[in-house]
Amino acid sequence: MAANNSLAGDDFLLRTVKFVVLQSLVMIFLFINLLLIITFFKKEYFYTTTRYILFAVTLLSDSFLLFMSDILLIFTHFQITIQVWICVIIFLVVLVYVTVTPVTLAAMTLERYVAICMPLRHGELSSTRNTMNCIFLIHGISSVPGILIFSSLFVSASLSFYKQYQFCSVELFMLYIWQHNLRSAIYQLQFLIMSIIIVFSYIKIMKVAKAASGEDKKSSKKGLRTVALHGFQLLLCLIQLWCPFIEVALLQINFSLYEIARYLNFLLFYLAPRCLSPLIYGLRDEVFFQALKYIASFVFSTKNHSISDDGSVSGLT
């Protein structure tokens, strides 16, 4: 009996430590993303330039997902149940923003393709109005998986199901095996299309880079690295979507393995990429990096700087 109590105590302590670690990381990552968002809104140059606007879309989307995922994690940790209809509303929004980031990455890749391979049309296609239309299109495309997934739920579940109190998880809406398969097929098709876009853009930019010289060659090579980064970010997003299927398989084998896998998946493939990928992208961009340094110096010290309209930073005397 004493041994069982000791094991239960150790298990509770381990759960508490993991929970505290995750909460600390979430707060740190949300703070970093907040700095990046503040940097974006600091100057007109950023929110009138297409690639920075799309970058901000990924920042806002990732920050929202971090926040909502943390709320759901807190609910799970403290074993808080809510009515299913409330969970449906939460996940209708969450599933949109799960897809917004990868779709936006594809849009950012196409923007680089146009800038390097079709420079004469870049100004016309990358106008603020077209960028806003692109953002609406991104959200429209991102809504498709959620609409299809919940449509399959609405035709399968009775009205009494929505009044039940349950732990809020996307697996709650998968009542039948075919619904799991439908969700998998939707996301796999969507990511296949986005992967084709990124590979196509990379090949086209690579051809331009080989034929270019001087500054054009330097710009093309930088574009190649940017597209490669988008490809890596997309891969992380794809792994994140595979995680629930891996977790379900492990749950049938061993619950302890399931808990470990779920913790590591959340940490490595959900939490870290939502902060580190945007941060790396922001640090690679010289103009954005200079503006970020200004914001950081304002937050962490009394040093004064000013940002010019083109995003460059200068000290004040």
Q: How is the biggest beta sheet arranged?
A: 2 strands, antiparallel
- What is the count of structural domains? 1
Radius of gyration: 22 Å
Strand order of the largest sheet: 1-2
Distance between the termini: 72 Å
| Helix content estimate | over 70%
Mean pLDDT: 82
**CATH-level-2 architecture:** Up-down Bundle
Which series of helices and strands comes N to C? HHEHHHEHHHHEE
| Helix/strand class | mainly alpha
Task: Give the beta-strand count.
Answer: 4
CATH evolutionary superfamily: Rhodopsin 7-helix transmembrane proteins
Number of helices: 9
- Uncertain segments of ≥5 residues (pLDDT<50)? none
In CATH, the topology is named Rhopdopsin 7-helix transmembrane proteins
Summarize the topology:
Layout: H1 2-42, H2 50-77, E1 82-83, H3 84-117, H4 119-125, H5 128-154, E2 165-166, H6 177-211, H7 215-253, H8 255-284, H9 286-300, E3 305-307, E4 313-315
Antiparallel strand pairs: 1-2, 3-4
Describe this structure in words.
It is a single chain. The chain is mainly alpha-helical. It has one domain (36-299): Rhodopsin 7-helix transmembrane proteins (Rhopdopsin 7-helix transmembrane proteins, Up-down Bundle). Helices cover 81% and strands 3% of the residues. Strands 1-2 form a two-stranded antiparallel ribbon. A two-stranded antiparallel sheet has the order 3-4. Strand 3 and strand 4 (313-315) form a beta hairpin. Helix 2 (50-77) runs antiparallel to helix 8. The model has no long low-confidence stretch (mean pLDDT 82). InterPro entries: GPCR1_Superfamily_Member, GPCR_Rhodpsn, GPCR_Rhodpsn_7TM. It comes from Seriola lalandi dorsalis. The chain crosses the membrane at residues 20-41, 53-76, 82-110, 131-155, 185-206, 227-251, 263-283. It is found in: Membrane.
